[in-house]
Structure formats: structure tokens, C-alpha cells
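Progress note, sequence design subtask.
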């Protein structure tokens, strides 16, 4: 008897333009899911609160991710709300404003909407970390952002099967 393979649950990363932070988070997540021991129960995607369809990831985001061995060159932006993710999707905003916008667009998903920094990294002085936008800045800013997001993703992934907020 052949068992049917279950559909992976979605981790949706959200920023403003869907050309820097959220594609970086999506890229790292899918890379670590594919190359780690986190199983195939999850798949990452991303969207933006202030974007239109089809914009490529920024050149500096692509370059910095290549330095980490992750190819995001085929990424194209997607507006948040342009499709309805299936039940069981977890949403992660890069800032509180992104988290609020996710909740506005998907009001029935409140228990599945998080600030990435509040669930993946220890709070700084009790305040969950927001991920700064490197758009329009130097490659050094992109590198700092990528390292921050990488750390957050590496902290988040082991909790997916354990944290009660992520079980459904």
C-alpha cells in the first residue's frame, strides 16, 4: 500500500516590497528545510504589503544570498492577499506594521500571525526584534540584514514541530 504524501504547510514571510527581507527569509528557510533535518512538512514563500506582481529580488539581496550559497535570483514579488494561503499557514511579518497588515487582510488567521523576531530570537530588552529594511542602502546593510534573518530562521525552524502556537 502506498501512502499519500501530505501537502507541506506554508511559512509565509511578509515585508513591504517583497524584494529584500521576505525573499531572504524565504530563501534561507527553503534552503535549510531542503538541506537540514527539519523534514518536508513545511515550505516557505513570501509576499509584500506594498508591491505589485513580478518584481525581481533586489540585486544586492541576490548577491548577498549567493554569498550564503542560496540562489534567490528567480524570485518575483507577490502582493499580500493576491492569493489565499491554505489553512495551517503561518505568517511572519518583518515589522509590527507588517504583522498588523497581515491581520487586516486575513482577520480570521490572527492565531497564525507573528512578528518574526518575537518567535525566533530572544527579545532585545523585552521588545521583539523588527528586521530593518536594507532597500536603497549599502551591501553592508544587506549583509547585516541577511545575517539577522538567517539567525532568526535557524532559531525558528526547530520550534515548528514543538511550539504549541505552530501546531494545527
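Output:
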Amino acid at each position: 500500500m502506498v501512502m499519500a504524501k501530505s501537502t507541506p504547510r506554508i511559512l509565509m514571510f511578509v515585508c513591504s516590497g517583497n524584494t529584500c527581507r521576505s525573499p531572504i527569509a524565504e530563501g534561507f528557510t527553503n534552503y535549510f528545510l531542503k538541506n537540514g533535518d527539519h523534514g518536508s512538512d513545511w515550505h516557505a514563500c513570501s509576499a509584500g504589503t506594498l508591491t505589485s506582481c513580478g518584481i525581481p529580488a533586489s540585486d544586492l539581496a541576490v548577491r548577498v544570498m549567493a554569498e550564503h550559497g542560496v540562489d534567490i535570483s528567480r524570485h518575483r514579488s507577490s502582493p499580500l492577499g493576491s492569493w489565499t494561503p491554505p489553512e495551517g499557514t503561518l505568517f511572519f511579518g518583518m515589522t509590527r506594521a507588517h504583522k498588523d497588515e497581515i491581520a487586516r487582510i486575513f482577520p480570521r488567521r490572527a492565531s497564525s500571525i507573528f512578528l518574526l523576531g518575537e518567535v525566533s530570537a530572544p527579545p532585545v530588552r523585552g521588545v521583539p526584534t523588527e528586521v530593518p529594511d536594507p532597500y536603497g542602502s549599502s551591501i553592508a546593510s544587506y549583509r547585516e540584514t541577511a545575517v539577522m534573518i538567517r539567525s532568526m530562521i535557524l532559531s525558528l525552524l526547530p520550534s515548528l514541530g514543538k511550539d504549541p502556537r505552530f501546531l494545527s
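The longest strand covers residues 9-15. Work on this subtask will continue into the next period as scheduled.
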